[in-house]
């Protein structure tokens, strides 16, 4: 057999003794996106396309813009032509409305398993800062899934629900029901701030509570203000689940440093909103349940010696999305930006968002994320620009402990006399008897719940007396305690991919359980214990929704029944993986995994994770191992 196993190609080769590059630990990349196109009529480009509606921009005709930028500008703050398309008789909406409905929390999809016709439906995504879901909202979502969806709920990697299969004629009913039951979908998709992550565990602990409160305040600060959402879905009735904290309102309205659009319905976003999606996570020091380095902004609570939160370290410039065969697109880890006192966090966040709003590219959406701006400028220039909008200097980064991944599964004490239980849900898909049982438990005991960034569900506020009946009911529904679940499954994630995602090149959610069983079979064959595991993440395309580029073993769809294989992430999600092979056919994965896992098992250092092992060994040596195994009689 040739060196290219199963037709696969090796990439990202490194020498066995090569030191892990800084680009994979702190996000500094050597690849640079191409510059923005020069304005029509000549003249050198400044490298970025400014938000055309800011007071700084004189004439929108001076810049080249993507078609989405034109759609946003003409939409009357996300209304037109979506408002007209929603009442037409067609089962679908036009391209302009497709772009706008994303801001309202929905994607138009077709069932790709149905051949010969377009079978249109809509996916709805909720907005749940910290993953918090009130009892009333959970029950409403459960009912909506049965009445208007496909009978399942999907827990996402950003702590939200996805509801698939909603027909256009039912959209208003479904969204208005969400809104009237303490929920929202506003800003769950589109070119603005998405759901803000935070540790999902309901611990009564100062740093966790402060992280969750901060995440909720940031989410409120960056929520669209124009009212279009309520106009379209509840006929203009603005229903608020809770009154906005006054410090949020004050920070949004503050224009001391030229951040706002005066007299605009959208003081922060203007008519153009952001160049692209924007993701923020907040966490406590050491808690990396949120994949902190993969976000546009990562916010970390810093506490004093007495455990009192005093401020925040801020990371900027993370992001997962890339495009196959376009080397100037890449996943990137966030860089340390600096520290701010706790009273300044909303102003610092706003300054960073405005820096991206004003300087992020709007001509080519492949390069519109903030990670490309920081990669092009460097962190020092970005910091200096953000400080203009912040109005002061960022202080030096405070020391942090080593990151740890926390799943928050199983029974745990909240710290207030009550318990919580983290339910493992394979791929976040809640359906069948499990869905029925979860509803019964949540309804009977009047529980609030929380969604984790690893697609699991936490039942909160449980009395000690309820523990035994809840444990029994969950087990009968097939929702096993963590100790009874294969460790591979506990940390694995997959995006939905086929059949509804239009970007999917191959399976992810529908294929991951089979792949995990095959990995466990390879473990058994080479002598790896049942208690051992690696972090496996699978996506159907390179956009990276399940964050495969942080996995010890990542599968990224690159064709029908074909995957790129990425190696080198670490269990605490602090290191970026790299491409090891391209075009590995699904049927051939053992030809790659068996020699890798066998070599890991025989040559690893004590306690060395698979990801750390691949980094220490280097891709050159690993390629040699796979080649040698492929040529051996045992591989035939």
From TrEMBL:
Lyase keyword on record: no
Keywords on record: 4Fe-4S, Chloroplast, DNA-binding, Heme, Iron, Iron-sulfur, Metal-binding, Oxidoreductase, Plastid, Thioether bond, Transit peptide
Subcellular location: Plastid, Chloroplast stroma, Chloroplast nucleoid
Region annotated Disordered, chain positions: 246-268
Broad class of where this protein is predominantly found: plastid
Sequence ranges assigned to domain Nitrite/sulphite reductase 4Fe-4S in this UniProt record: 217-394, 536-628
Domain Nitrite/Sulfite reductase ferredoxin-like per the UniProt entry, residue ranges: 116-176, 413-476
Catalytic activity: hydrogen sulfide + 6 oxidized [2Fe-2S]-[ferredoxin] + 3 H2O = sulfite + 6 reduced [2Fe-2S]-[ferredoxin] + 7 H(+)
Cofactor: siroheme; [4Fe-4S] cluster
InterPro entries: NiRdtase/SiRdtase_haem-b_fer (IPR005117), Nit/Sulf_reduc_fer-like_dom_sf (IPR036136), NO2/SO3_Rdtase_4Fe4S_dom (IPR006067), NO2/SO3_Rdtase_4Fe4S_prot (IPR045169), NO2/SO3_Rdtase_4Fe4S_sf (IPR045854), NO2/SO3_Rdtase_FeS/sirohaem_BS (IPR006066), SiR_ferredoxin-dep (IPR011787)
Basic and acidic residues: compositionally biased ranges: 246-255
GO function terms (MF aspect): 4 iron, 4 sulfur cluster binding; DNA binding; metal ion binding; sulfite reductase (ferredoxin) activity
Record-listed E.C. numbers: 1.8.7.1
Gene3D superfamilies assigned: Sulfite Reductase Hemoprotein, domain 1, Sulfite Reductase Hemoprotein,Domain 2
GO cellular component annotations of the record: chloroplast nucleoid
Major enzyme class: oxidoreductase
Matches recorded under NCBIfam families: PRK13504.1, sir
Family statement drawn from the similarity comment of this UniProt entry: Belongs to the nitrite and sulfite reductase 4Fe-4S domain family.
PANTHER family per record: SULFITE REDUCTASE [NADPH] SUBUNIT BETA, SULFITE REDUCTASE [NADPH] SUBUNIT BETA-RELATED
Function summary: DNA-binding protein that binds to both double-stranded and single-stranded DNA without significant sequence specificity to reversibly repress the transcriptional activity of chloroplast nucleoids by promoting DNA compaction and possibly regulate DNA replication.
Subunit structure: Monomer. Interacts with ferredoxin.
Protein name (record): assimilatory sulfite reductase (ferredoxin)
